[in-house]
Amino acid sequence: MNEAKILTANGTGVVAGIAYADVVWVRPRPALPSSTTSIAEEDRAAELERFITAADAVAARLDDRVTTADGAAADVLAATAGMVRDRGWRKNIRKNINGGMDAEYATADATEKFVTMFQNAGGVMAERTTDLKDIRDRVIAELRGEEEPGLPIISGEAILFADDLSPADTAALDVNHYKALVTELGGPTSHTAIIARQLNLPCIVAAGHSLRDFPAGTPVLVDGSLGTVTNAVSAEEARKLVQESEKRAAKVALWRGPAITSDGHRVQLLANVQDGNAARIAAQTQAEGIGLYRTEMSFLSATEEPSIEEQAKIYGRVFKAFPGSKVVVRTLDAGSDKPIAFANMATEENPALGVRGLRIARDNEALLTRQLDAIAKAASEREGDGPTWVMAPMVATAREARWFASLCRERNLTPGAMIEVPAAALMADKIMPHLDFVSIGTNDLTQYTMAADRLSPQLAYLTDPWQPAVLRLIHQTCLMGQTTDTAVGVCGEAAADPLLACVLTGLGVNSLSAASTAIAGVGAQLAEVTLEQCQEAANAAMNAEGATVARESVRAMFLDN
Ligand code: PEP
Ligand code: MG
């Protein structure tokens, strides 16, 4: 066991919860035909009939499953069955067959056209390509008389691994057997994620190619809030973590906001989002507003800068989900791992230390002011009376903060800054007087404090937000926040970890913003502790010799009894 190769994968956790079981891979999709046999004219009617029979059989099987599912799962199964009956799709296939293609090739060819069309449309449409490929594969398998691709029937417990599980298969998942779902592809707003959320099945999407390294039968630990999968844990340790997680899950399910410690200390819990879709999902949780709207995520594939009107429309979708609540919009954090074509960045040797975030605006102030104009326009058109706050990423000096704040105030926007460069934490007393609030980005603050690339799996032991060095910088920022009467929030991944959230509260943070899936877990944990216990935990963590000791000592204080 100890000699087994260590395997790890990281993705986007969309449903919190810890599970431990053997890996089972979904049954493979059928190989797609690369060429067609030419169907003679007199046989084409029969070939078309063969396709219709197969497609109808697939649709009928999906209909059968609708009767045993409920809620979103039933809707998805019915919608998938509807796609198999879709007139436009069938018409294209009929045209192919009438032109002499065999049914398998005709199906693959027609579907490909729809996939391209959906992908070009982008956004929510692009996520629907999984549904299309799914119906194609089911029909092709049926035509060949092969087993339907998808979920294997199992008797014990398992963790389901898939390249991209179809919504229909997700809807048919038996949670008595499948304890978690991990997909190589997919996105947090895909149907797969929506159903996993409804089933309350721990789920990670977009775990990448490294998932392929896990052979079937490997026992793995899945953490749906951290988005991690690993085999580097003993069965005994895993069982303990699963038990803790089950106990916690029961409490989390009962928790209702707002977040408050057992002795009455309020902490504002907010959501991190990247678009209107994610904001709508967040609005269904106990989030009190949006603490980080990553605007650059809407422009990753844009080749040209959208006009002020277009931008305002995009931002308006996020505001719409939280009409009466605070929304913190972050201006473009282009660069490094999020290059944006229209921000015109030259290739750099060290992009993480280069012209990223607010730095881009030094040579291109108009790019920033157009974005601020768009935010101000969208804010003025908000339906409710929720406050709009705006913050700049990668602020390093008081001068940058002053410049950004003046641009915001000219537009009646409430200015703030991310504290994610160590210099900004150390100089917070000089930076804060220019601003109304700061929000600590623990992802980058950890990367820059530890001099370790946040994307490097080998350096994950350093890029751990429990690093006492990072906690000390946060503490110092909070103290300066008290002196200058400036609100201090945290919007990095640290805020998604319930124990670390207690530590952050103890350090003096006023608001925590995290992925919406993590909010109830954090709120339920805060409800169990007093502010004084949070402060004791913060002291212990800050004074630990390293991240592991810090985490373990707080775990012992809060969870082991
Ligand atoms: C951070 O750095 O912690 C942060 C919230 O911003 P991002 O992850 O988008 O860099
Ligand atoms: Mg950052």
Please tell me about this protein's structure.
The protein is 45% helix and 14% strand. It contains 22 helices and 16 strands. It folds into three domains: 8-27 and 150-240, Glucose Oxidase, domain 1 (3-Layer(bba) Sandwich), CATH 3.50.30.10; 41-144, Enzyme I, Chain A, domain 2 (Orthogonal Bundle); 265-515, Alpha-Beta Barrel (TIM Barrel), CATH 3.20.20.60. Strand 15, helix 19 (498-507) and strand 16 form a beta-alpha-beta unit. It has helices spanning 44-66, 71-84, 87-98, 103-121, 123-127, 129-144, 167-171, 191-199, 235-254, 276-283, 308-321, 360-363, 365-380, 398-409, 422-426, 428-431, 442-450, 468-484, 498-507, 519-526, 531-542, 547-558; strands at residues 8-10, 12-15, 18-25, 158-162, 178-183, 203-205, 219-223, 228-230, 268-273, 289-294, 326-330, 388-392, 414-419, 437-440, 487-490, 511-514. The longest helix is centred in the first third of the chain and has 23 residues, at 44-66. The strands form two sheets. It has an eight-stranded mixed sheet with strand order 1-8-7-3-4-5-6-2, with helices on one face. It has an eight-stranded parallel β-barrel with strand order 9-10-11-12-13-14-15-16, surrounded by six helices. Phosphoenolpyruvate (PEP) binds next to strand 10 and helix 17.
